[in-house]
């Protein structure tokens, strides 16, 4: 019966090296059992090497008790092991310990017993839970602010986003319960200590469910992460912290859909600049884009209502992040990069017309409009910059499917023009492969499709426009 230890739930924390060892320790089992183990090891590694098709929505990795969608598991091992450049201000393995409080944890003065309710009283919101040290000045100096949102297990992408962006960032964080909240407190502390641009320019907002207090509580003192902090490895650091979540919290996450549209609205409204660039947390902007974009928006004039699309590419985890559009083009030629979702769901970005974007002149430095989207398609889901008067993200959509593209669709019906900018771009790590959707995603997608029919008739009535797409 020893072999039953290999049940999928024991893989929940995706602690691969240790888990692999413990599996091999089971080898004295009978040969049939060995075969079974080898098979499950194989399946496990297959799932690890070919992770489930990633969705565009940063917070959507819903914890599953099956191996198919393990929470907090990095999509790509290579990314885990690729060190970030060591920050100038390095934080050498020390940790904020309660008894020797040399560094206090973030969200120190936040009382989660009260907060702003969402419209359905399902979530409490703490706007501006931690404000970047230079957020006010930075927001005044920049015409664009990046708004993003994340569940706790995906937050490791933020350092690279902040590193490339170098401007104001408004980040909405979801915390299912006390355990996730503790993880967030440690990890945001770590982010602020390790990454100067996070400390200076990132402002965090928190959203917690009404049931927050019914989820397990951990004592802060029991959280010992000594020597686990490493500024070069945010993903590893976060993974170590995520182990504090118990099965009960993970089960709650599995049963409850992630409120990504609530999160997007919170992040958007936390921006103080004229323009907002709403992304998901794993969408990495090209290097120094905020300076280039500020130049462009200083003189940008728009007839009517405009949204400025920043094209998104997926890049092979073995590649180095492209420093310029020309290096991105070189990666595409080598097959190490391609338009986001090209192989998984082409309509996601198709209307952007990458052919035209890639044809534009070489060695561009100044941002300009490459072309206007002429063939808008239903389910088009670009990341765009716009004045934050664009329609809100409808909070009836939660979980997977119809969350972002429904908002873009409303913009289209409302008469927005989509202008594609060059040479700025964004990247997502990992080439996506087409695979069967896990059952939970299919369910959430179907539930949202039904809501979408209602949504569609509402917006046709509101704008007196039915584009018959
Ligand atoms: C607290 O931490 C500081 C700096 O790491 C150290 O010098 C000091 O000895 C510590 N104090 C106690 C009481 O542990
Ligand atoms: C914060 O953003 C401003 C632009 O708004 C930028 O000039 C500054 O370098 C950023 N700070 C850090 C530490 O990256
Ligand atoms: C994209 O642009 C190319 C080059 O201008 C054009 O030939 C093609 O028809 C466009 N594709 C779509 C779908 O509009
Ligand atoms: C772009 O600029 C670089 C360096 O300035 C130069 O070596 C390269 O030939 C240029 N490429 C094109 C296509 O003009």
UniProtKB/TrEMBL annotation:
The record lists the membrane-crossing segments as: 26-47
Q: One Pfam family of this protein, by short name?
A: Glyco_transf_49
Name the keywords, alphabetized: Glycoprotein, Glycosyltransferase, Golgi apparatus, Manganese, Membrane, Metal-binding, Signal-anchor, Transferase, Transmembrane, Transmembrane helix
One GO cellular component assignment for this chain's record is: Golgi membrane
Q: Report the locations given in the UniProt record.
A: Golgi apparatus membrane
Q: Name the source's superkingdom.
A: Eukaryota
- Pathway it acts in? Protein modification; protein glycosylation
This protein's record includes keyword Membrane: yes
Q: Which reaction(s) are listed as its catalytic activity?
A: 3-O-[beta-D-Xyl-(1->4)-Rib-ol-P-Rib-ol-P-3-beta-D-GalNAc-(1->3)-beta-D-GlcNAc-(1->4)-(O-6-P-alpha-D-Man)]-Thr-[protein] + UDP-alpha-D-glucuronate = 3-O-[beta-D-GlcA-(1->3)-beta-D-Xyl-(1->4)-Rib-ol-P-Rib-ol-P-3-beta-D-GalNAc-(1->3)-beta-D-GlcNAc-(1->4)-(O-6-P-alpha-D-Man)]-Thr-[protein] + UDP + H(+)
**Its principal location?**
Golgi
Cofactor(s), by name? Mn(2+)
Gene Ontology molecular function:
glucuronosyltransferase activity; metal ion binding
* Membrane association type: Single-pass type II membrane protein
The UniProt record lists the keyword Glycosyltransferase: yes
Question: What GO biological process terms are annotated to this protein in UniProt?
Answer: protein O-linked glycosylation via mannose
Q: Which family does it belong to?
A: Belongs to the glycosyltransferase 49 family.
Q: What is this protein called?
A: Beta-1,4-glucuronyltransferase 1
């Amino acid at each position: 019966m020893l072999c039953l230890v290999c049940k999928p739930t024991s893989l929940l924390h995706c602690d691969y090296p240790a888990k692999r060892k413990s599996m091999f320790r089971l080898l004295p089992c009978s040969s049939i059992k060995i075969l079974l183990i080898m098979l499950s090891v194989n399946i496990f590694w297959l799932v690890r090497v070919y992770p489930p098709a990633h969705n565009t929505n940063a917070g959507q990795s819903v914890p599953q008790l099956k191996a198919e969608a393990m929470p907090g598991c990095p999509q790509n091992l290579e990314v885990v092991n690729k060190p970030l450049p060591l920050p100038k201000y390095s934080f050498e393995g020390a940790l904020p310990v309660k008894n020797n409080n040399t560094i206090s944890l973030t969200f120190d003065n936040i009382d989660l017993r009260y907060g702003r309710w969402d419209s359905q009283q399902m979530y409490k919101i703490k706007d501006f839970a931690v404000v970047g040290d230079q957020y006010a000045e930075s927001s005044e100096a920049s015409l664009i602010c990046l708004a993003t949102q994340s569940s706790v297990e995906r937050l490791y992408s933020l350092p690279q986003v902040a590193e490339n962006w170098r401007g104001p960032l408004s980040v909405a964080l979801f915390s299912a319960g006390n355990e996730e909240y503790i993880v967030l407190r440690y990890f945001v502390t770590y982010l602020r200590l390790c990454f100067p641009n996070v400390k200076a320019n990132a402002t965090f907002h928190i959203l917690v469910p009404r049931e927050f207090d019914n989820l397990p509580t951990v004592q802060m003192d029991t959280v010992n992460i000594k020597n686990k902090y490493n500024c070069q490895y945010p993903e590893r650091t976060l993974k170590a912290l995520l182990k504090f979540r118990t099965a009960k919290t993970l089960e709650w996450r599995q049963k409850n859909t992630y409120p990504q549209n609530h999160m997007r609205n919170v992040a958007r409204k936390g921006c103080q600049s004229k323009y907002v660039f709403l992304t998901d947390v794993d969408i990495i902007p090209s290097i120094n884009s905020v300076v280039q974009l500020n130049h462009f928006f200083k003189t940008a004039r728009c007839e009517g209502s405009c949204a400025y699309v920043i094209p998104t590419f997926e890049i092979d985890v073995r590649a180095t992040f492209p420093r310029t559009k020309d290096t991105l083009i070189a990666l595409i030629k080598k097959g190490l990069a391609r338009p986001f979702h090209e192989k998984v769901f082409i309509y996601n970005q198709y209307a952007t017309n990458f052919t035209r974007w890639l044809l534009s002149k070489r060695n561009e430095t100044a941002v300009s409009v490459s072309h206007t989207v002429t063939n808008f398609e239903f389910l088009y889901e670009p990341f765009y910059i716009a004045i934050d008067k664009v329609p809100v993200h409808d909070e009836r959509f939660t979980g997977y499917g119809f969350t972002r593209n429904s908002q873009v669709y409303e913009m289209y019906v409302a008469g927005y023009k989509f202008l594609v900018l060059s040479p700025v771009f964004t990247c997502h790590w990992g080439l996506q492969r087409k695979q069967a959707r896990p059952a939970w995603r299919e369910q959430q997608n179907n539930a949202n499709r039904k809501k979408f029919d209602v949504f569609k008739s509402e917006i046709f009535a509101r704008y007196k426009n039915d584009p018959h797409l």
